Amino acid sequence: MHRLSIVLGILTFFSSLTYANIIYTQDFENPSGFVDTTNRDVSGQTVNSLYGGQPDGFFFAQTNSVETLNITGGQAFGSGYQDPRNQAGNFIIGLLATDLLGLAFNVGNNDFLNIGIDITSIDLNCCGGFFVNSGEAPLFRFSLFDNPTGNVSVGSGLRRLDFFDALGTESARNVVDFTNFVFGLDASDSTNGNVILGIDLINGTQTYAGLDNIVVAASNVEAQLVSEPGSAMLLGLAIGAMALSRRRKLMSY
Questions:
Q1: Does residue 247 form part of some domain?
Q2: Beta partners for 208?
Q3: CATH of the domain at 100
Q4: What is the pTM of this model?
Q5: 229 within a domain of the structure (yes/no)
Q6: Which of 166, 148, 168 lies closest to 158 in space, CA to CA?
Q7: I want to staple 159 with a disulfide (CB 3.0 to 4.6 A). Which of 87, 103, 146, 235 is the partner?
Q8: pLDDT, tens digit, for every residue of 184-231?
């Protein structure tokens, strides 16, 4: 499925939710001053330095070296990254299992954040890689943290409001093969609406994966659909059953 169809499907789904308000979209297609710091289509520049032109009130935070990958650069793995389903555009974000990425913002008076995102197995042939074990699929944890002070940081000491675990699919080291997820996170227990959406790769201590096409909608209705690869067109049709992998707890990070 073409990248534009995926994004339009997600937006159609969110706009169909009662009281849904799309407050944020990010496809990572317009980094400011991207530099291939590795000669392998990989930049180690911070996410905020490349994507500083965020909407008012939205800020990235990261722990360790979250990378931006140039999918069309032609240098990685000798011939560049491959995107056979034309899903990724030019750039995606890559994380090691030791990295954390966060997005800080205010959810307002809404009880839920409905999130749409694409994840993929991907690897590096630089920077100490390979990192992905053969047959390994990416497992991401998307956590919503209370952030009453409004600090732009991600890591220990934050109270977790809710989380969702998303398991992608295995692919070759240099191949983008997105699985699209839509899920709801409960923000009703936030202190003053300030929250951080934390993104963490949790399968093992030495692995790597990518993500792209983030959509955030604030709502009083919780999205309950998790789509499979190639089924993003279904997002505008119905709200399905919540994935069994979902677990909700109140805890510290």
A1: no
A2: 96
A3: 2.60.120.260
A4: 0.84
A5: yes
A6: 148
A7: 146
A8: 999 999 999 999 999 999 987 779 999 999 999 999 887 765 555 643
